[in-house]
Amino acid sequence: MTDTFKAILVSRDEEKKQSVDVVQLTEADLMEGDVTVDVEATTVNYKDGLAITGKSPVVRHWPMVPGIDLVGTVSKSDSPAFSKGDKVLLNGFGVGETHWGAYAQKARLSANWLIPMPKGLTPIQAMGVGTAGYTAMLCVMALEDAGIEPSTGPIVVTGANGGVGSVAIAILSKLGYHVIASTGRPEESEFLTSLGASEIIDRKELSEPGRPMGKERWAGGVDAVGSHTLANIIAQTNYGGAVAACGLAQGFDLPMTVMPFILRGVSLLGVDSVMQPKEKRIEAWGRIAKDLDLKKLEAITTVIGFDNIIETATNIVDGKVRGRVSVDMTK
């Protein structure tokens, strides 16, 4: 008898109506790849929520097993890069969008997409970080590369209660930055302060149309929101400052002028987490293991089982999830 395993499968009918089902698969069903992994842990990112709910066209191959992050153990390998028994981690590369992803107990993947499991992190901790936290680290590294140091001035972080925002606050505060957290949930101020935020501002200060140039308020920013929010952050960035942009929760437009760029020398740093080269991924995860307070990570991480993925995906799109979610796929 062929061994089967559980998976979440997103499908569409001829009228493009989406459905989500828990199914039983076999290894023969998996897509092509040179490494097969027993999935031990994953997470629920905002993008995963969009894939499962269908509220944005994230999925580009049908049917699809969603899930863009995973940690697991290699069970089969046709690549010299990995051997049976190796612990590996995956972020991005279209997994969960064009290639079957993490919401199954097994995944077949390209060795080029995998890195060795970072030392100093458990699978649940690594997925507590996930793509959101990994992206936050890439944003911090981009600001550092642009010369933004703790002594340069404050850093504003938008979407502070979300995955990117909460991890960014924890990392930046540990590195010694003065962090200004922008949130639409003022009742979470105590939580954000516990992560390391020095100031809390209401997102309404940034989310409405603003002036082309505002008063200088911060040396840099980490933005996962886009649209008017990103425009206002840039318009209020100090001379020579920089803003790392990695998301579009408010929108993908950028309604602003070039004035902050040419009058204040502000830099806009685009941060992509999906197609980073392996060396950069390994560097970022090494920094996470060193520069993220794991007690703070635990404070922002909720651990669920496979059976809770679909409900959590809906909640994250509805803005009901604080911080990060790890999925223990062994339960």
Structure description:
The protein has helices at 46-53, 123-145, 163-174, 189-195, 204-207, 227-235, 259-263, 278-291, 294-300, 309-317; strands at 5-12, 18-25, 35-43, 69-77, 87-91, 106-109, 114-116, 155-157, 179-183, 199-202, 218-223, 237-245, 267-270, 301-305, 324-328. Helix content is 30%, strand content 26%. With 331 residues, it is of the alpha/beta class. Strand 14, helix 10 and strand 15 (324-328) form a beta-alpha-beta unit. Strands 3, 4, 5, 6, 7, 14 and 15 form a 7-stranded mixed beta sheet that branches.
**What's the CATH H-level superfamily name of the largest domain?**
Medium-chain alcohol dehydrogenases, catalytic domain
CATH topology of the largest domain: Quinone Oxidoreductase, Chain A, domain 1
- The appropriate CATH architecture of the largest domain is Alpha-Beta Complex
Q: In the CATH hierarchy, what is the class of the largest domain?
A: Alpha Beta
Counting helices, strands and paired strands, the structural category is alpha/beta
Give the helix level as a range of percent.
25-40%
Specify the number of helices. Answer: 10
Reading the helices and strands in chain order gives EEEHEEEEHEHEHEHEHEHEHHEHE
- Strand segment count: 15
The end-to-end span amounts to 23 Å
Characterize the overall form: globular
- Beta-sheet strand percentage? 25-35%
